[in-house]
Every structure is written in structure tokens, then in C-alpha cells.
């Protein structure tokens, strides 16, 4: 059931390709307007490309000459809203797909009951959609999508319309359901990508800007969007020396290359820049990535002695309570850097919007790699 799509739509500035291996789940991430819904509409047959081609399990869905209509594609699209038929009860909603593809009433009902069992919703069988909670309706919608036995399942932010309280149970359910299926998932949550997707594709302005295995990509993002999703600070610049980056407006940033990071965590690496360039060459585009928890905040008069290597003058933009931490957003010229402090530290610093500070990040906590 492998799937491959490549398509361009001039009017939307869309020109991207997506490949999903048999049994694989791919998460599609990207800012608003990046083209995620466009990609789904193309795959589902709701939109025509100017040029391109899509193949599912060896069948051409569209190309220069061919066009398979939506209902005959073997593609199921699960929208953010469950979109159940309001006049049919739950079991008939789920039986709709099998009926439409020719199953007898009895066989379709048996299939519907089986799929309702799969999503722990058997007890809802006789209810009308209006009598379901958001989470229940979404479970039924998943059963309905699966009952059509699609070869490709498309899930458009399946948790977006749900209470945070019910999302975890549904996430676990989808993890089970997606395990052996060929599926594509649009999400804005790193957790969804980690839990549900083998691979991640990042779209920006209609183009794929990076892709890779989920854990690897979110740990070492190469796009600002993926870094934001992974909750990491992200600086772009050009390499100057091993583990050293020049960032416009910020100056030199000192870090370590990824291979050194693990050693640094074990306390074996003292200074950055001592090893030969691994893969990246001077002047190449590169990025520096570090965690908000690894950024310390000081008043300018209180910067520790011994001149830390990464010390950036900045101005506080915003303080945001975040669980047991306070997240500090600070502007260092053209870049916003975030730091996580304890409430006690934030109170002691007496920070507020407009406060002048110095942000310090140890080189050993900053990973530098080519973009
Ligand atoms: N019906 C439409 N007609 C013309 N252009 C459209 C239409 N829908 C979307 N676009 C444009 O296509 C581009 C991609 O939009 P798309 O909705 O696919 O992005 P998205 O990543 O799904 O965004 P979001 O996260 O906001 O849903 C945008 O420039 C958008 O303005």
C-alpha cells in the first residue's frame, strides 16, 4: 500500500512531493497556509493539480491523462470535525462505507460492529450523532473511515476539535489503529508526531523544507517551524569553525557538533571548537539549537565572571507561566530567544517586559550543525 504523490498548483504556490511506505505513518507539519490541506485535497481527489502524479499501491490516482474520482481512490479522509450523517445512527454511519461498496445490509452491519469494537464504541451503536460527545463522535468517525477499508488514511488534525481531557485516550487508540496502516497525519503537536508517526515532513509555503524520521528530526530540526514545535531555540547563520556559527545581529555563537553533544552531557568536552569540522565547511549555512532550560538570565551588572562564551544582550518581551517554570521570551536584536526559569529566579531578577538582561548559554548545551 505504498503511496507517492507529486503535484504543483501555481495559483497556490504549491509544489511538493510526498512518499509513504507500506504500513508507515507520516506526519505533515507546517505553519498556517503551508499547503497541508492542499496536499490532502489532492490525495483525496477533491482538488486537481496543474501537473503531477499520484500512485497508490501501484494504481495511478491521477497524472497527465488519468483521474480517479474520490470515491474510487481507496483513500479515506478524516476531517477535524467528525462530520457524521446526522440522520443516521452510529452503526448505520459506520456501515455506510461497506454498503456503498456493495456489501449486503447484514455484512455491512457486522463490519460496522467490528469497527465500533475496534474504537471501543460498541455501546454507542444506536445513538444519533447529536447524542455523542466530541470525543465519542471522533471515535465513531474513525470507525467509519476504517470500515471503508481504505488503502490510505488521511487524518487532518484529529484532536484539534477535542477537549484536552479526551485527546490522550484517542491518541492511544489511533496509535493502535495506525500501527500497521499506511497513513498521513496533519498535526501541530510534537507529541502526536512522536506517538503516531514514523516520519515527519515539514511544509512551508507549499514546499517540503525538511523531512526525516520523527525523533531525529525533532531532536535536530533544520527548520524554524520544527524547532518551535520541538520547543527548542533555533538560530540560523554560517559556520566559521567547528561548532561555531556567525548569526546576523547576534554575532558569534559557540556550540558543539552533534557527535560531541553526548560526550558533553557526560562532562567530557570542555570547550567548543576543538575538533575538526564534521561534514560542515566554513561559510556554509548552519543552525544552532538549544533548550530553553539551558539558557540562564542575568541582569547586565550581574553577569558571572570568566566571560561566558555565549552571552547575548537582550530585552525581555514577555513572561509566561508554564507549569512549574516561567518561560522568558527575550529579544536579542533580530532574534527571540526563550529561557525557562524557576518562579523564584524570575522573581529575584524582578523581570518585566522591557527589562534589559544578558542571556547566557553554555557552549556544551548548544548544538551546531549544517542546515
Ligand atoms: N480554496 C482555495 N482557493 C485558492 N487558494 C487557496 C484555497 N485554499 C487554500 N488556498 C491557498 O493555498 C495555500 C495553502 O493553503 P492550505 O489551506 O493548504 O494550507 P494549510 O497548511 O492547510 O493551512 P492551515 O494550517 O491554516 O489549515 C495558501 O496560500 C492558501 O491561501
Automatic annotation (TrEMBL):
A Pfam family recorded for this sequence: TOBE
Domain Mop: from-to ranges: 305-370
Keywords, sorted A to Z: ATP-binding, Molybdenum, Nucleotide-binding, Transport
InterPro entries: AAA+_ATPase, ABC_SmlMolc_Importer, ABC_transporter-like_ATP-bd, ABC_transporter-like_CS, Mo/tungstate-bd_C_term_dom, Mop_domain, P-loop_NTPase, Transp-assoc_OB_typ1
GO molecular function: ATP binding
SUPFAM superfamilies: MOP-like (SSF50331), P-loop containing nucleoside triphosphate hydrolases (SSF52540)
Domain of life, source organism: Bacteria
Location of the ABC transporter domain: 3-230
Keyword ATP-binding assigned: yes
PANTHER family found in the cross-reference section: SPERMIDINE/PUTRESCINE IMPORT ATP-BINDING PROTEIN POTA (PTHR42781), SPERMIDINE_PUTRESCINE IMPORT ATP-BINDING PROTEIN POTA (PTHR42781:SF4)
The name this protein goes by in its record: ATP-binding cassette domain-containing protein
Organism from which the protein derives: Sinomonas terrae
Amino acid at each position: 500500500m505504498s503511496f507517492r504523490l507529486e503535484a504543483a498548483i501555481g495559483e497556490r504556490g504549491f509544489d511538493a512531493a510526498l512518499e509513504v511506505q507500506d504500513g508507515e505513518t507520516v506526519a505533515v507539519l507546517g505553519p498556517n497556509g503551508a499547503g497541508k490541506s492542499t496536499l490532502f485535497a489532492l490525495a483525496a481527489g477533491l482538488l486537481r493539480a496543474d501537473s503531477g502524479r499520484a500512485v497508490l499501491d501501484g494504481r495511478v490516482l491521477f497524472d497527465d491523462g488519468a483521474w480517479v474520482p474520490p470515491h474510487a481512490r481507496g483513500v479515506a479522509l478524516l476531517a477535524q470535525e467528525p462530520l457524521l450523517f446526522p440522520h443516521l445512527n452510529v452503526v448505520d454511519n459506520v456501515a455506510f462505507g461497506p454498503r456503498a461498496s456493495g456489501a449486503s445490509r447484514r455484512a455491512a452491519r457486522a463490519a460496522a460492529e467490528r469497527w465500533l469494537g475496534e474504537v471501543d464504541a460498541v455501546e454507542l451503536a444506536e445513538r444519533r450523532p447529536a447524542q455523542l460527545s466530541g470525543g465519542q463522535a471522533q471515535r465513531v468517525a474513525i470507525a467509519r473511515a476504517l470500515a471503508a477499508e481504505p488503502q490510505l488514511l488521511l487524518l487532518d488534525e484529529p484532536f484539534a476539535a477535542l477537549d484536552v481531557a479526551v485527546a490522550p485516550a484517542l491518541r492511544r487508540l489511533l496509535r493502535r489503529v495506525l500501527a500497521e496502516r499506511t497513513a498521513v497525519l496533519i498535526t501541530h503537536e510534537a507529541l502526536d508526531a512522536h506517538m503516531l508517526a514514523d516520519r515527519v515532513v515539514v511544509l512551508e509555503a507549499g514546499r517540503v523544507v525538511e523531512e526525516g524520521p520523527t525523533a531525529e528530526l525533532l531532536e535536530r530540526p533544520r527548520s524554524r517551524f520544527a524547532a518551535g514545535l520541538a520547543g527548542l531555540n533555533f538560530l540560523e547563520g554560517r559556520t566559521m569553525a567547528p561548532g561555531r556559527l556567525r548569526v546576523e545581529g547576534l554575532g558569534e555563537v559557540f556550540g558543539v557538533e552533534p557527535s560531541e553533544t553526548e560526550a558533553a552531557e557526560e562532562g567530557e568536552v570542555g570547550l567548543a571548537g576543538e575538533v575538526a569540522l564534521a561534514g560542515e565547511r566554513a561559510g556554509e549555512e548552519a543552525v544552532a539549537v538549544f533548550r530553553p532550560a539551558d539558557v540562564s538570565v542575568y541582569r547586565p551588572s550581574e553577569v558571572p565572571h570568566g566571560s561566558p562564551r555565549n552571552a547575548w544582550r537582550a530585552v525581555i518581551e514577555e513572561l509566561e507561566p508554564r507549569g512549574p517554570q516561567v518561560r522568558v521570551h527575550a529579544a536579542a536584536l533580530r532574534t527571540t530567544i526563550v529561557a525557562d526559569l524557576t518562579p523564584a529566579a524570575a522573581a529575584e531578577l524582578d523581570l518585566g517586559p522591557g527589562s534589559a538582561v544578558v542571556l547566557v548559554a553554555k557552549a556544551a548545551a548548544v548544538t551546531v550543525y549544517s542546515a
